[in-house]
Write a structure and sequence with these properties.
The chain is α+β, with helices and mostly antiparallel strands and about 280 residues long. It has a single domain, classed as Alpha-Beta Complex (phage-related protein like fold). It has 6 helices and 15 strands. It has a 7-stranded mixed β-sheet. Helix 1 (about 15-30) crosses helix 4. The chain starts with 8 loop residues before the first strand and ends with a strand. About 30% of the residues are buried.
């Protein structure tokens, strides 16, 4: 009878981590769906930003062309560790069936995605990255109540004035319900919001997808330019198990660690549509 035990072993292979954790996380978390996702193997990810473009000018034929340089800056993303610990029975941990493995992966993804969205749509997170509330986004006043979609057009126009394009709106479930109930006029049953013909369950505002996250406060809708909003995920995501800590109860600890950071290269192009009662 073997008396030795092995602790701290990986419960998912690198390929399984990618397919059962990373890919579903990117598809499920609202933060990753509204942003450009970067996979990185470095401690810091540097994104170049053009603070000022080169200057073009009309010149006569044969005349000298004045040389100008672009003014470049950079946004540095330092991924922070997001870790979760859950406890499962040894029977489930020993089950090698696809269903058991998928159950473990689903629970990990749900928890990580909730924490990721909470940080992304929040302000400063202890030991984590700072989110949208920290960047000084352009505020668009929508009035005391949701009456029409004019504020959304204003957010789009504000981003376009800065050479950016709003690719997603994001709000709370309660706010999404109120917006979906807006009608073209009193007595009409025609909604102001439109549906995506290719995906009837999705919501569109002026052709732009509206995503929903409980991590966003009611009365706020974010207008996000995906080309200027980044989520960096490091390659060293791991899911490990250890039976020793819960030896007396025949259970296994499952630990997942993920390093992720946010980068906003054009904060002024991000719109924060708010109610002002």
């Amino acid at each position: 009878m073997a008396l030795n035990t092995t602790t701290g072993a990986a419960i998912l292979t690198p390929d399984e981590v990618q397919s059962l954790v990373i890919r579903p996380l990117i598809e499920q978390a609202v933060a990753t769906r509204v942003s450009t996702v970067l996979n990185t193997s470095t401690t810091n990810t540097r994104i170049p930003v053009a603070a000022a473009d080169p200057t073009a000018a009309w010149v006569a034929e044969g005349a000298e062309i004045a040389a100008t340089d672009a003014s470049l800056a950079q946004v540095v993303i330092t991924p922070k560790k997001l870790a979760g610990l859950s406890i499962i029975s040894n029977e489930l941990a020993a089950d090698s069936s696809p269903a058991a493995t998928s159950t473990i992966g689903d629970g990990i993804v749900r928890d990580i995605s909730r924490k990721l969205d909470a940080a992304f749509f929040g302000n400063a997170t202890a030991n984590g990255p700072s989110g949208l509330l920290s960047i000084g986004a352009s505020v668009v006043n929508a009035g005391a109540t949701w009456v029409n979609l004019d504020a959304f057009e204003a957010a789009k126009a504000g981003a376009e004035a800065l050479s950016a394009v709003i690719t997603s709106f994001a709000c709370s479930p309660g706010t999404a319900l109120l917006l979906s109930q807006l009608k073209e006029q009193t007595g009409s049953n025609k909604h102001l919001m439109s549906a995506d013909p290719t995906a009837p369950t999705k919501r569109l505002i002026s052709g732009v997808p509206l995503l929903v996250s409980p991590s966003i406060a009611d009365g706020i809708v974010w207008a996000i330019p995906g080309a200027h909003t980044f989520v960096a995920i490091r390659d060293n995501t791991s899911v490990e198990s250890d039976r020793s800590v819960f030896f007396t109860s025949d259970r296994t600890a499952i630990r997942a660690t993920l390093r992720v950071g946010f980068g906003f290269t054009h904060p002024g192009a991000v719109g924060k549509i708010v109610l002002t009662p």
